[in-house]
Amino acid sequence: MYKWLPREAGTAPARVGFSIPKKKFRSSVHRHRVRRLIFESWRLHKHLLYAHVPPHLQLHLFIMFTDNKMPNYALVEPLVVKGITKLTGTLPEVQPNA
Asked: b vs e for 39-67, b when ≥16 Cβ sit within 10 Å of the residue's Cβ?
């Protein structure tokens, strides 16, 4: 899910949050491991999304991990890239004065 907000000077084009439910991963060590995997993939590929964000707006994005199995980076990276690509294709055209 995402939301557009006015962008303040000196801020990034997008802010991102992650959710790894305690119901799926009881151990906080495992939840944080999944979060670090997703965050690293986001860090390496966020430029794909930044190119589509207008300079006067900031995109607030929330990523939820819903699988029960502990992933590895080889599984997470293509999913994050696919999500970013899908999001850039569905972003509405934003007018400069909006």
From this structure: bebbeeebeebeeebbeeebbebebebee
